[in-house]
Specification:
Helix content of chain A: 40-55%
Number of strands of chain A: 10
CATH superfamily of the largest domain in chain B: F0F1 ATP synthase delta/epsilon subunit, N-terminal
Number of strands of chain B: 8
Radius of gyration of chain B: 16 Å
Pfam families (chain B): ATP-synt_DE, ATP-synt_DE_N
Largest sheet of chain B: 8 strands, mixed
Structural class of chain B: alpha+beta
Membrane topology (chain B): Peripheral membrane protein
Number of helices of chain A: 6
Main location (chain B): membrane
InterPro entries (chain B): ATP_synth_F1_dsu/esu, ATP_synth_F1_dsu/esu_N, ATP_synth_F1_esu_C, ATPsynth_dsu/esu_N
Strand content of chain A: 15-25%
Largest interface: A-B, 44 and 37 residues
Low-confidence stretches of chain A: 1-54
Number of domains of chain B: 2
Oligomer: heterodimer
Low-confidence stretches of chain B: none
CATH topology of the largest domain in chain B: ATP Synthase, domain 1
Family (chain B): Belongs to the ATPase epsilon chain family.
Strand order of the largest sheet of chain A: 3-2-1-4-5-6-7
Radius of gyration of chain A: 35 Å
Largest sheet of chain A: 7 strands, mixed
Structural class of chain A: alpha/beta
Distance between the termini of chain B: 28 Å
CATH topology of one domain in chain A: Pyruvate Kinase, Chain: A, domain 1
CATH superfamily of one domain in chain A: ATP synthase, F1 complex, gamma subunit
Amino acid sequence: MASSIACGSALKMATFEGLSAKSLGLRGVEPAGSVDVLTWESVGRREGRGSSIVTAGLKDLRDRIATVKNTQKITDAMKLVAAAKVRRAQEAVVNGRPFSENLVKVLFNVNEQLTTEDIDIPLTTVRPVKKIAIVVITGDRGLCGGFNNYILKKAEQRMAELREIGVSYTVVSIGKKGNSYFRRRPQIPVDRFLDAGNAPTTKEAQAVADELFALFVSEEVDKVELLYTRFVSLIKSDPIIHTLLPLSPQGEVCDISGNCVDAADDEMFRLTTKDGKFSVERETVRTETVKFSGVLMFEQEPVQILDALLPLYLNSQILRALQESIASELAARMNAMNNASDNAADLKKSLSISYNRQRQAKITGEILEIVAGSTVTV
Amino acid sequence: MDTFRLRVIAPDRIIFDSRAAEVILATNTGLVGILPNHAPLLTGLDIGILKIRTNELWSVVAVMGGFAMVHDNDITILVNEAENAKEINLQEAQEIFQLTQTKVSQADGRKENIEANLNLKRAKARLDAIQEGIKEGTAS
């Protein structure tokens, strides 16, 4: 007859109602006669002796797993939201096409009527460069990986280059992240802080254009460079520098090394899926520049008309840069959130394994205690 | 009724794409009225107002510079930005106009001058647009 069960103590191994430890299928248990028969290592216990510590560890692990699961849900959602917003950014670019197409056509035709001596438009004046305005486009929010850092690093690089060749500069910062970066560095001359917003419209582009127009035409600066990230791939983020002003009368787009692209060539980005994964495609769209048939009467001199056209061109260039920057930021965020989700999944897996192991160890321990306690025979 | 196709396009959206009977443009060489079957024309637009007549009603739009192209009974107007008089508040437009006037008098230096004058022109265009809109009865 079994005496009252005494748990939790090193016990003499005995049989309980005829059942031996062995017949119960418990391993690591010495047959009757030995003291301290339970070898904790064999049941995978690594820490703690009493069941109370195990329970606390279990609860902690459970809470941690729940937290990680929630975080994963959030990062997953953020990734999908970013992907949806990229589509919207894409649409915005497509919506801007009617404007650029018509502008390019007219620009072409007006230039055909011009001879080089005629051109004396403030926005196209090429002057010896003493001071440059650098327009730095960053994002408003974080959680986008290295996106903002790359741009700011490139900006610092450019400023160092300019210092070396003895050209002074001033910064026009667009985007909250860039703004706070430059605000913390008062040694960098900043002309204006502007906000970009999530969906750049012509109002935002106009605000930037006004500032740059005033800077350039008043001859405070002799050149304006635009620093932004083009939406090329979902993984890579390579900021580029475009020369924005002075404009070329034909409307060519040039980068600082002097490589120019014709105004009629426009590159549009598209977020598509390839093999089940998101990918970015860029396609070059060329606008047909046909000479207008028939006599087109110019109400004003071709030069005056060009004077009206070029601010429009400036605006659309700035708007495009803002749109590309937003798309790149969203892609970077998609990437960052994707990585975060993957990390969360890995963490959850390892936590779950650890949790289950502890849980099983606890159960085994309790069984052993019961068995050991119950086999004490008087 | 004779009409022509009229499109008013801004860098980020299409503002108007429909048929109209008459359009009055504010160019930097004066006001120009366009009727159907007009001769081919290309003109720059100043910061001012654009009036469109559809079905005997005139709608007024404040435009911030651009150009207009008339060709084959099809008018394409590209603008930096446009605001329909219906969406402009008279009081607000007057206040902004006065504000820009004081800014011009306070402007110091060439850059500030350029900026201030630009803003003044724009404010005036908006004010003119809403006043004209009220006169035509299509805005309030």
